[in-house]
Specification:
Layout (H helix, E strand, L loop, with lengths): L9 H9 L5 H19 L9 H8 L3 H7 L3 H24 L8 H13 L2 H14 L5 H25 L5 H22 L3 H9 L10 H26 L1
Helix pairs in contact: 2-3, 2-5, 3-4, 5-6, 5-7, 5-8, 6-11, 7-9, 8-9, 9-11
Length: about 240
């Protein structure tokens, strides 16, 4: 049975109920409260089960106020995607730093998988991103998000290129996009619909088809990196 969702912090609720956000700082705070409320509700339900009205209620504001910040639920969830990606990037950087000069392909792959497994909400959001969230965005919101992704990919590719000797920047960019694609597919494989999960659990001959997110992703990323680096060495020898 899922745990009862936490209530908004008392001071937070008082601030949102009793004051109108006037300064840029207050508006950013209120926007952040709405995103946090959406994250808390999404942890307890699927996308369809989260509404702007529920998010507004949890954040302590009127429904109309929530629409002043986000013109649709998809725009709200898009900001949640960005927040989750930013936090993952920071956590990944901190996790890779101690590895230093001893870093290996396997260590990088395990670290990526571990930090992503620690943020299951991110995997669920990326599954929705291209088919549910992005199609409902207006042009400017969509463009702003793609620019955000461009900058994120550039930062991550620079991090991987600096961490792994022999990995060029173009190959690192491809690797980041491969991570993105793998998170979407492995998230779905690791969390099948209940009826499929039951079938897999009850038939011993189907055990090999059961997927655990973290180890499966780590092995797949290690294979990708190994192939990429071997290809780079082959190209360099032939040059």
């Amino acid at each position: 049975m899922p745990a009862a969702p936490a209530k908004p912090h008392a001071t937070q609720a008082k601030r949102l109920d009793g004051q109108r956000a006037r300064s840029p700082q207050d508006k950013d705070l209120r926007r952040g409260h709405l995103v946090q409320a959406a994250a808390e509700l999404f942890a307890q339900a699927d996308f369809d089960g989260v509404t702007i009205a529920k998010v507004a209620s949890r954040a302590g504001v009127a429904k109309g106020t929530a629409y002043l910040y986000f013109n649709c639920k998809e725009a709200l969830f898009l900001e949640l995607v960005q927040s989750e990606l930013n936090h993952w990037e920071q956590e990944l950087g901190r996790a890779l730093e101690p590895l230093g000069a001893t870093i290996t392909n396997a260590a990088v792959s395990v670290t990526i998988a571990r930090t992503l497994a620690a943020r299951p909400t991110l995997g669920r959001l990326l599954v929705l991103l291209h088919t549910v969230i992005e199609p409902q965005l207006d042009f400017e919101t969509a463009r702003s998000f793609k620019l955000f992704l461009r900058d994120l990919v550039q930062r991550l590719s620079s991090l991987f290129a600096a961490s792994l000797p022999g990995l060029g920047t173009p190959e690192a960019v491809t690797f980041v996009l491969q991570i993105h694609a793998l998170v979407i597919s492995v998230s779905q494989l690791a969390a099948p619909p209940p009826i499929i999960a039951q079938v897999l659990a009850e038939d011993a001959s189907l055990q090999a088809m059961r997927v655990e997110f973290e180890p499966f992703l780590a092995v797949t990323l290690a294979t990708l990196l190994r192939g990429t680096l071997q290809g780079e060495r082959t190209i360099q020898k032939g040059a």
